[in-house]
Design brief:
The complex is a heterodimer of chains A (373) and B (364).
Chain A (H helix, E strand, L loop, with lengths): L9 H14 L4 E7 H9 L2 H4 L4 E8 L1 H4 L2 H11 L4 E5 L13 H6 L3 E4 L3 H10 L4 E8 L4 H13 L5 E7 L2 H10 L7 E4 L2 H6 L6 H6 L3 E3 L4 H16 L5 E3 L11 H10 E3 L2 E4 L3 E4 L3 E3 L8 H4 L15 H5 L31 H21 L1
Parallel strand pairs in A: 1-2, 1-7, 3-4, 3-5, 5-6, 7-8, 8-9
Antiparallel strand pairs in A: 10-13, 11-12
Helix pairs in contact in A: 1-12, 2-16, 8-13
Chain B lengths: L2 H16 L18 H15 L2 H4 L13 E9 L5 E2 L2 E2 H14 L4 E12 L4 H18 L2 E10 L7 E11 L15 E4 L5 H9 L17 H13 L6 E5 L5 H13 L2 E5 L7 H10 L13 E4 L1 H11 L9 E7 L5 E5 L5 E3 L13
Parallel strand pairs in B: 4-5, 9-12
Antiparallel strand pairs in B: 1-6, 2-3, 4-6, 7-10, 7-11, 8-10, 9-11, 12-13
Helix pairs in contact in B: 2-5, 4-5, 7-10
The chains are: A alpha/beta (373), B alpha+beta (364).
């Protein structure tokens, strides 16, 4: 397929892998921040191509994985209100709350529907004037502009039976929180791709300046990831720490000005927002500005709003920070599987645990059978 | 009332009662399922017209027939696809071919089908006629006849337009031993053609995505392709080398191969580059965040066969219209048992697990 196959050529991959191996034999830990990269790494078996001294740590950049239990409970409570059509992106449907998921609520009679875009939710609102349509706003700066645009459209056309349950989050405060975490030992970052199309690359410059770590903004095809690993390792070997842009075909230093304008028109930062496994992070969540309060589902419906502690057995937090590998979690693959996820890392295909469960078990199984023999 | 008058009246009424039923209604009503006259008209005026054959014509509560075989294959399946009409087929074609294929995968020659209809009140007769007509054509192509049936009507909202259940009986004429458990070290995995056509077509036909493509469902009867496969094996005196036949429908190739790997406690290794997927299907799957390995097919089969049989079978399958893109896509190994793995086109290896729940599109 044109513009896809070019980025998946195995001969180039092997060349790149050799070049990476030739750079250094020093053990390095690199984190891919974005869930999309985690998915790519597993889907194409990139870890098989990397030399053994390079270890990939799968970071917190999967928005479905970091939504806390209490917020899922709130979403379910809104979905169960009479007259509500609750719309959401596909992967959020199965995310477990403290007791049930949206999928369970749907089976119990709540009108929960999957949409591909918030504009589809707005369309549903227009088609069903006797119902109230709520959209579950979820994701980083990647998806937030489309939610903001939809709210602007609803405001312009006075669609009063539409609102958003906003759980949009921002990447930079989370990245800072990770870098400040004392148990984190990383040598460099495979930087977010789609988020950076919106926010640009300038905002990452504190990473090398303050923390001395290289960061390379990276595309989502397998060759993108390999090239980016090469660029990071090269920086380390040459003693540099910079922000570089591997994804220059899409990402510009200043980002997407129009999208940023729309974001600041509609949203403002929350004082705190809780991240699953990472705890409360200041200014890391977005909420609707008071001018758009009439589209804020949190104000329209009284939600329980309770903080719910993560299940004790679940080690999503350590996994998101890269302190533990998925298979080191006590419940991985036994009590916690994609069918019955305990932790959110197991729900989305971009979650480290699900990606590992679906795509990555092979090498561990091989290791086990070698150990047995 | 004079006797003469009443006798002519009764004769007229009697004639009318026995007249061949004409079916002129435009929509299904609850009366069509009531067991009364409207239902008789529906059965004789419509179903019988489309499916007419001596066994069905008797219109008894059961079909009675003899079979000359020591082994029978018997299967049932229900069809609830939405939308009921889609590029490349409809629910009727699917209901015939699905059951025909389930029989064919045992190596059986499908013979007789039953067909049960659950109709929603208000369903348009024109749509029903279209469905019956494609069932008739599909049955003719597959060499089966519908010998018994049933109709129920449920009130509006009690079903989504039309559900169909078909059961089928087939005869096994060769000494075959086909089973998932027979997959063994050294076997080859043969696939009859491109993956993902049906599932992608349905996703797009639902119209929620505003994608326009030329993709069509691959819905097709596979009994004659299976007959060719058996014939080729027999000609080479290698029927025992046919280990397993499966049609990768819901859950796609990935799920079918996992069932085989678990059933035989073997490892199945497939090679991404060899697996045929249409460019349009690849593109649609990229956009929707789907993996063609997990998308449903309705006219494809997977054969697990001994290594020496694989090449000649592929050559023979390619001569068949439903096997034109047949190829060897993988190997069966003994370790690690119960696992399907794939060498990616990119040079890595990954596990291909069973599908969990519905395949949900990724959000970013």
């Amino acid at each position: 397929m044109k513009f896809i196959d070019e980025y998946r050529q195995s001969d180039l991959a092997i060349t790149l892998a050799k070049k990476i191996a030739a750079l250094t034999s020093q053990p390095l830990k690199l984190m891919e921040v974005c869930g999309g990269h985690t998915h790519t790494i597993f889907k194409y078996g990139i870890e098989d191509l990397l030399p053994e001294n390079i270890e990939m740590i799968h970071g917190p950049g999967c928005p479905v994985c970091v939504i806390p239990l209490g917020r899922v409970d709130d979403a379910i409570s809104i979905a169960q209100q009479p007259g509500v059509i609750f719309t959401t992106f596909g992967d959020a449907i199965r995310v477990p709350g403290s007791k049930t998921s949206l999928l369970d609520a749907k089976a119990d009679g709540a009108d929960v529907r999957m949409v591909y875009s918030p504009l589809d939710a707005l369309k549903l609102a227009r088609k069903n004037p006797e119902k109230h349509v709520v959209f579950l706003g979820l994701g980083f700066e990647t998806t937030a502009p489309s939610t903001a645009m939809t709210i602007l459209q609803a405001a312009k056309d006075n669609v009063e039976n539409f609102s958003v349950f906003c759980n949009h989050i921002t990447i930079i405060p989370a990245l800072k929180a990770m870098l400040d975490s004392p148990d984190l030992k990383l040598d460099g970052f495979v930087g977010p791709g789609h988020v950076s199309t919106v926010i640009g690359t300038r905002c990452y410059e504190f990473v090398p300046r303050v923390y001395g770590k290289p960061l390379v903004v990276t595309g989502f095809e397998p060759l993108d990831v390999l090239q980016s690993v090469y660029m990071i390792v090269k920086q380390i070997v040459e003693g540099r720490a910079e922000v570089e842009n591997q994804y220059a075909r899409v990402v510009h230093r200043e980002g997407n000005r129009k999208a940023l304008e729309v974001l600041s028109e509609v949203f403002e930062p929350r004082e705190y927002f809780e991240w699953r496994g990472l705890g409360s992070i200041a200014h890391s969540g977005m909420k609707l500005k008071s001018e758009y309060a009439r589209f804020d589902a949190e104000l329209k419906y009284s939600v329980p709003g309770l903080r719910v502690a993560d299940p004790k057995a679940c080690q999503c937090g350590e996994i998101l920070k890269g302190v533990k590998k998925p298979w080191e979690c006590k419940v991985f693959g036994t009590a916690c599987t994609p069918e019955t996820p305990i932790g959110s890392c197991m729900v989305s295909s971009e979650g480290a645990c699900a990606a590992y469960y679906n795509f990555g078990r092979l090498s561990k199984i091989a290791e086990r059978s070698v150990a047995r023999a | 009332m004079s006797t003469a008058f009443s006798s002519t009246l009764f004769q007229r009424v009697e004639r009318a009662r026995r007249r061949k039923h004409k079916f002129t209604d435009t929509h299904i009503t609850l009366a069509h399922g009531s067991g009364g006259r409207a239902m008789h008209e529906l059965i004789e005026g419509l179903f019988l017209e489309y499916f007419r054959n001596p066994l069905l014509e008797r219109l008894e509560d059961q079909a009675v027939f003899g079979v000359a075989a020591s082994q029978l294959a018997y299967t049932t399946d229900s069809y609830v696809v939405s939308p009921i009409f889609f590029p490349g087929g409809d629910i009727g074609k699917l209901a015939i071919n699905g059951t025909v294929n389930d029989l064919a995968m045992s190596g059986a020659r499908p013979l007789y089908l039953s067909s049960g209809f659950i109709l929603e009140e208000g369903f348009a007769i024109d749509d029903l006629k279209k469905i019956l007509s494609s069932m008739r054509d599909a049955a003719a192509e597959a060499g089966v006849i519908v010998v018994t049936g049933d109709t129920k009507v449920v009130q509006k909202g009690g079903a989504d337009k039309i559900f169909i259940n078909t059961s089928g009986i087939g005869v096994i004429e060769s000494p075959l031993n086909l089973s998932s458990s027979r997959a063994q070290d050294g076997d080859k995995v043969v696939l009859s053609g491109t993956l993902g056509d049906h599932g992608t077509t349905i996703m797009i036909a639902r119209g929620e995505l505003e994608l326009e493509t030329d993709i069509e469902s691959d819905c097709a009867p596979l009994q004659s392709l299976v007959a060719d496969i058996i014939d080729e094996a027999e000609r080479r005196d290698a029927v025992d080398g046919l280990h397993c036949l499966r049609d990768p429908t819901r859950g796609g190739l990935a799920t079918t191969l996992n069932e085989i790997a678990l059933g035989a406690e073997v490892c199945i290794e497939i090679y991404e580059e060899r697996i045929p997927v249409r460019e349009e299907v690849k593109g649609a799957c990229e956009i929707l965040g789907l993996d063609p390995l997990y998308v449903a097919n309705e006219g494809k089969l997977v054969a697990i066969v001994s290594a020496d049989l694989a090449e000649p079978l592929v050559a023979r399958m390619r001569q068949h219209r439903y096997g034109a893109d047949a190829c060897i896509i993988g190997d069966v190994k003994s370790e690690p048992g119960g696992i399907v793995s794939m060498r990616t086109g990119f040079g890595g290896t990954r596990i291909v697990d069973m599908l969990v729940g519905e395949q949900l599109p990724r959000i970013c």
